[in-house]
Amino acid sequence: MQTFRWTTHSPEETIALARQIGARLHAGDVLAYRGGLGAGKTTFTRGIAEGMGLDDLVTSPTFALVHEYTQGAATPLIHFDMYRIMDEEELETTGFYDYPQTECVFAVEWSENIASALPEDTMTLTLTRTGDADREITLQGDERFADIGT
Question: How many CA atoms, within 13 angstroms, populate the side-chain half-sphere of residue 131?
Answer without folding.
Answer: 8
